[in-house]
Every structure is written in C-alpha cells, then in structure tokens.
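Cross-check.
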Amino acid sequence: MNALPMSFAVCLLALASPALAWNAEPGIGTAPDEMTAKAAPNVEQNTPLQQELEALRADYARLVTALAESDKDLSAKRDGFIDISLGGYIQARYTWNEGADDGLDSDGELLPHSGFNVRRSRLKFGLHAGELASMTIQPDFTPEEVTLKDAYIEIEEPWIGDYRLRAGLFKVPYGYEIEQSSSERAVPERSQFTRTLFPGERDLGAGIYAEPGVVRAAIGVFNGFVDDDTAINRDVNTDKDLIGRVGIELDGFAVGLSGRIGQAYDDVTASEFTRKLANVYLLTEAELPIGVSGLNGEWNEGWSALEGRRIRLRGGHALVYQYIGDRNQLVYRFEAFN
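Predicted model, tokenized:
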C-alpha cells in the first residue's frame, strides 16, 4: 500500500522538473516573447545576405525588361531602316589553246591563242529597305567590256515570308545549274547546253518565288533571250516566254522539274516558231571521312528551230566531286548535247 503513493510522488516531481528548469535559467524568463527576442539577432545576421540577393534579383529583372524593350525598339527601327551590302569576286585564268596562232583574222579579230584573261570581275550591290523590300545590282567588269548582269527588285509578302515577287534582269528559274553562283559551283563554267540555250542565264521579266517548307518553286514571264547572235537563241518578238521550276530540297538532297515555252524568231525564214524545253535535275551530297562527296546532274529535252528547220534538242551533264579537306576539290563532269 505504501508503494503507490511513492510512485505517484516521483511522477509529480518529474512533471514539475521542466517548469523548475525553465524558471531557473537566467536570461530566458517565463514568456515566449523573451525567447523570440533572444533569437532575433540570428535573423538580423542573415539580413545583409538576403538584401544582396534581393538586389541581384531586382537587377536581373530590370535587365530582362531592358533587353525586351531594346529588341522591340530595334525591330521597330529596322522596319524603316536601309541596309547596304557590297560583295564581289574575280575569276582570273590562263587558257591554253592547242591550235594557238598569233595575229588577227581578216575581220580584225584575234586568232585562237593561249594567254591570260579575266573571265569574270563582279561587284554586287544590295539595298534592303526594312524586312520586305530589296534591290540588287551587279555589273561585270572585264578588259573587253562592262556589262550589267543583275538589276532587279524583290518584295516579300509580310504574313508568312515564304513568297517573293521579283522583277527586272535576273537569272531565269530553270534547272539547278543556272541559278547557282559562279563563285559556288564546283566547275566555274556552266554546261554547254545551258550556255547555248540560255546565253547569259538571265532575262528581263517578272517572277514569283515560293519556299514553303522543303518545296522550292518559281514561275516567271520573260522577254526572251536576245544577247546571242545565233538564230536558235533569237527572240525579238512581242511574245513572252513562260519559265518555271518546282522541286524538293532537303539537307544533302534535291530533285525537281523545270519547263520553258515561248515563241522565238527565225532570222533565215523571217518567221516565228514555238520553242519548248523540259528539264529534270537531281543533286545528292554526303559526308565521307576524307571530305564531302557529291553527285548532281541535269537532263533536257525540247524542240526549237534553226535555219527554217524544226530540230530536236537533247542534252545535259553529270558531275561528280570530292572534297579533300575543306578547301581542295576533285571534280569530273561529263556532258552531252545534241
């Protein structure tokens, strides 16, 4: 009977011990407010770091806002801004002629000879008025003459950006070789078929160009080629030529079809005739351990006239190239023209 009261007394003492300890510790007191006041100095010690972090966050937010506003200002200014670009290249070469001879012929023209020459010397001027309109002029300076190669304006539709209108003197949208720049082609000179049927590669006219996704398409109306003195290339009437191209272009691959139809003039018979041409082209390119390797080709079929006779046109080329490193190239081209 005495054991129970003793145990109860021990329990009361244990429960009372925290209260005794609380009151006994100096500086803490019995109220929670005193504990909070005592812990406050720890918060004050972290305040400078927190203030620095807040300042950095504020600076970052201001920088992001300033960049966004600056981008808007630049976009707004560019709409009314004019950019001018200038580029060019020179193609100098030495020609060796197996049947070379000295002197002049009866017409005062140079006989076939070997020697140095400047094949091309181009300066290309570009003017961009905002994002949607541009103008391009490209003269060609050679020792014999100065000619105008390109002179056209181009307007891009503002909604999608995949369609352009071009007007003036520019390369016709036929095949693939014609629109390649001489500074970018594996072989500086275009194929014999192209040089014969498209002398100068350019004509006066207007065309629409479309590049939605992987599709590449263009169609235009042109005067007809008049810068060559052979009857097969003369087009001095009021009828226009319709020239167009459509294809697919991917990374390292392109395939497409082209066509041309128009009325031409035969000097011999003093009559007009219909000239028709169709083209198919294919280009492939792959990365090999020694460098980029490529294969491309074009084939053409059509009808024209020469000296009063209707003639069949057929021809094209196949070209293989292999880069050795980034700058050196091995090239072989096979041509056929009937």
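The longest strand covers residues 271-288. Residues 1-44, 227-233 have pLDDT under 50 and may be disordered. Passed to J.P. for a second look.
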